[in-house]
Amino acid sequence: MRKLQTTLFLFLFIQLSFGQKLNIINNQAIQFSIKQEKDTVNFILIDTKLDQIKPVFLFCQGSLPMPLFVKPEKENTWMIGGGITNFDLDEIKKNYHLVVISMPKTPVIVAEKYLNKSYCYIPDEKEPNEFDKEYVKTDFLENYESRAEKVLTFLRKQKWVDNSKLIVAGHSQGSKVATLIALNNKKVTHLGLFGPNPFGRIDQNIRHYRKEAERKEITWLEANDKIEKTYQMYKDSYDKDSLIKKPYLLAWKSFSRPLLNDWLQIKIPTYLAYGTNDIASDLCDLVPLFYIQNSKNNLTYKRYLNLEHNFFEVNEDGTANYEKEHWKEVMNEFINWTKK
Questions:
Q1: Phi, psi angle pair for 128, to nearest 5°
Q2: CB 252 within 8 A of CB 202
Q3: What is the DSSP string of 79-142?
Q4: How many CA atoms lie within 13 A of 214 on its CB side?
Q5: Where, residue-wise, is CATH 3.40.50.1820 in the chain?
Q6: What superfamily in CATH does domain 22-197+266-338 come from?
Q7: pTM of the model
Q8: Among 33, 207, 313, 316, which lies 20 to 30 A Cα-Cα from 143?
């Protein structure tokens, strides 16, 4: 009888805890909104019900103001989800609540006519290269971390979240956001870094110009001129007057923060994955040296041969072969690592 009462109590507890009205999008995800005075932080959980208690896996998407869902004029709504549609979602959902936060000042669902060719949100369809001015002002590293912390604080209080483990991972720009979250949030238990640049962002431009000159695509004189202009742009990003006139420089300033210094401070298990044909991640080959020098053994790294920034194979001419993708393999290996 006591066993029956206990079972009944647990059933009622789960029903009451999970019995909330859910904002389900496209029968794929649940949308949540944390409203504040100056900003509303929207995020999605990749599921349609909350009947299981699982840890959270927060995936931090890359750059640019892409919506989480696209609504074509005639066809059905479809999900971008910050790139997670490339993953084996069913495999992730077996163990975790997969969460993605929308880009700042970017609608969760956007009509296709308000997207440019790169699927970035544009307020005026006649100006495909002009992003929302409010997005540009909020597109900096510390803001992404702040928004993520609000989401994680909310999730920690939910009955359907297992707080014994918290996975935070990011791709490209998202790896910088994930790094800062892990650095400052002691609840994070595992950190995943995909296609990161250990030394920030702006150094990639300089290395790109050098490689162009080495391949004789431009002259060294042209490379020198472009490198000097890059220096000047970076100097401007630290000038208050320049930031007022060119608010996009704030992103260059914040996202050019070297990540390596932060990684070496982080004590939790850290997973680093990158393609060998990715200029953004070229310098990842040096990262294990710094861990060795600092007697740190919390790094697991995976070097994917002949893959580019988004883990596609590369053709002989250096272009990505979009018929041969490896994101599922890459992410599943990470998921398996988090379960060890």
A1: -65, -15
A2: yes
A3: E-GGGGGGS-HHHHHTT-EEEEEPPTT--SEEEGGGB-TT--B-S-TT-TT---HHHHHH-SHH
A4: 6
A5: 22-197+266-338
A6: Alpha/Beta hydrolase fold, catalytic domain (3.40.50.1820)
A7: 0.92
A8: 207
